Automatic annotation (TrEMBL):
Protein name: DUF1269 domain-containing protein
InterPro entries: DUF6325
Organism for this UniProt entry: Actinospica durhamensis
Amino acid sequence: MDVNQVDYMVIDFPGELPAETVVPPIQALVEDGAVEILDLAFIRRDAGGLIEAVELDALGDAQGAAFADLTGEIHGLLSDEDLQLVGEELPHGSTAAVLVWENTATRALKRAVLASGGTVVAHERVPAGLVERDLTAIGMKASSI
């Protein structure tokens, strides 16, 4: 499997996940071909601190239905240990979605470079905080880009 850059994101909310506001922008990225969801899992940390993995159908009808549209072919990259580690960072009384996706927007470029005998020497994620700091230092606003 030729995999491009892979990211993960943990989306945490007090109480339940507001799927109606969170899912559409993720779905737009999938439909535009910018990302391919590789794994999707849910974690709940109750008021007492107990951490549990939550199945899609246990989220509730609205949340489950909204997130079901994103699942596609889930590869099961997230282990129980991964979810436990993420859960330990969540505030008590919250629910989180953990997404793992491949950035497919540059997949065609990478394949073209390799097919023509070239080599992708580096392809890394620059942390947003560093970019924002540097833009501020040179007098630009990140929102103006």
